[in-house]
Amino acid sequence: MLELYVTGVEQKNDKIFATTGLAATMQSLGYGTGVYKPVEVGAQESGGYLQSKDLLFVKAHDIHIKTYFTYLLKEEISPILSAANEKIIVEKNIINRDFDTIKNENECLIVDGLWGLATPYGKNFLEEDVVKSLNLPLLLTVSAENSDLNNALLSINRAKELNLRGVIVNNYNENSISKKLLPKMLEEYTDAKVLGTLPHFENNVSSSDLITEILNGVDIEKVFDINIAKLR
Hints:
7-stranded parallel sheet; two-stranded antiparallel ribbon; Rossmann fold; alpha/beta; 9 helices
């Protein structure tokens, strides 16, 4: 089975476009794909139920992608604070249990993180602890529009202790000198490989456009460490 953990380097990371694009692309290539969200903040109420806004976005682009979650927290603030306000404790063993339950239901499973490796989920419990516990390869997303270079370098260097597969730069624009240079700078100042770039997307981006940009701008064989016959 293909497994991947995707997270950003800070809060405003537009990571969901990379997660959704990768999931929709793998599904379109014939891999039964699922997206698991261990923790969501800013969950939305719909039909009397709380729902993950990120998972709703995934489903809107391909209804056949299976989606899963563990903790849905209402306030769009740091998860440790949102959970405390609801008298909930985010527990790593519960996330592990849910992951073990679903991991064999898909040929490709993408775990969609939150705001970055140092995001606090609980006492002495950061997002990076989830990555370590699930023992998954890690893909970091860096926004050429919203990410601070210092934060990006710190996060990438922090991720060296994990199984860092590589980096995707989103909100990329070749017509902007600063944005165009970002992938080169990330590789120059870290040992990480930039595995692709994605442009800025609006929330109403079509599924076909997402998939096209993934296929044209991202080396998905390196992202998932697999040879895909349909791409050859």
